[in-house]
Write a structure and sequence with these properties.
3-stranded antiparallel beta sheet, two-stranded antiparallel ribbon
């Protein structure tokens, strides 16, 4: 992540899967600069449905591409979802908020291993070291 953002600069983003809520997302985006963020915050402060929707066009204008899958009404995958305001309005709420917070610079990207459970060997080693520490005390 850079402190200075040059015109036209894009970043790679990653949001780890939240099982049961949304799938992992890889995306390319242009981070928001302070003036744009201030305008969106002003719109969000109205505290209404319209205020909540203020982030949709910002996300749509800043995400260059993503790998979010599109599904038909029967749940069959039909391709990659296009990036647009209407499509963003139909994403899981937590995913929309995480996307916005990354684009706004409030949160860093997740790491590729975020959300993965520890391996059995790592868990066994942790239990063993805890047991040894308890035995010494």
């Amino acid at each position: 992540m850079r402190s200075h953002i040059a015109d036209g600069y894009t970043e790679s983003g990653y949001i780890a899967e939240k099982p049961g809520i949304y799938e992992a997302v890889r995306f390319k985006y242009r981070r928001m600069l302070h003036p744009s963020l201030a305008k969106v915050r002003d719109k969000m402060n109205v505290g209404s449905y319209e205020g909540a929707k203020a982030i949709y066009p910002e996300i749509a204008s800043r995400v260059i591409e993503w790998d979010i899958k599109e599904y038909d009404k029967d749940g069959k995958e039909v391709g990659t979802l296009k990036v647009g305001v209407n499509e963003i309005a139909h994403l899981a709420t937590q995913l929309v908020e995480k996307l916005f917070n990354i684009i706004a610079g409030y949160l860093p990207n997740d790491t590729e291993d975020a959300g993965k459970s520890d391996s059995k060997d790592e868990i066994d080693a942790l239990v063993e070291s805890t047991t040894e520490t308890d035995a010494k005390n």
